[in-house]
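Technical note accompanying the year-one report. For the benefit of new consortium partners, we illustrate the data format agreed upon in the data management plan: each record pairs a sequence with a structure-token string. No post-processing was applied to the example shown here.
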Amino acid sequence: MKPVKIISDSTCDLSPELIRQYDIEIIPLYINLGGRVLRDGAEVASADIYEFVRQHHVLPGTIASTVEDFRQAFEKWHDLGYDIICHTISSDMSCSCQNARIAAEGLDGVYVVDSRNLSSGVGQVVIRSAWMAADGLPADQIVRKLGDIVPRVRASFILDTLEYMRRGGRCSGVAALGANLLHIKPEIVVENGVMRLGSKFRGPLPRVLDAYVDQRLQKTDNICPDVIFITHTGCAPEIVRQVSARIASHLHFDHIIETHAGGTVTSHSGPNTLGILYVEKPQ
């Protein structure tokens, strides 16, 4: 049986510690800052994006990992005798998945998994692949098990501001102004591979986040208690501690892991965005 190499595009938003621990190869997407095309996570950070938007009053562009990016990684590990499982952001949000599948053509033992998610929703799938690979499962069995896991990932975020959504054409200026005046903070939920508007919370961010966690974790008997991610675009440490404590008050997770969102999520959501991302138990 061949060893298994776990690969993901950079939208998985896993921490550097987890990437090192499980020896996950990351294929960066790209962020276009006014003609400067930089590798997400390697050459550009959230602070760079905020400064670009402040100076230029437009959002940066996001560009999928290329066929050649994936092909180089696949050929390297294929030639070393590995089977490969590559995870990507939802195919409804980016052509990263399509590019990976094109790159895999003609290479045996290369599996491309459409996460149907984004950010550490992808990361939930990636980390479970890594666990199974570490347990010695062959690639084809891991991929079959992922087919059951992918639909059970629950990903959502609270936006502190609608300004980035407005700049990206995803909401009107009137809606953004009204939300800001009324202190409304919307929830964005990933469902069936696409983003939709969830609940609307009102009030200061700390109070909203408590209400958000309470709502998401109100039925804890159907949640896998192994790992939950708190993923954010640069929230203050005290905010993250507050959310972690609120999570723990509902359910004991083996691991509550903080991760920072990469350039792809940051470019569309803006500062102080925070989400909790977990997996539900099988029915």
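Partners are asked to follow this layout when depositing records. The first strand starts at residue 4 and ends at 9.
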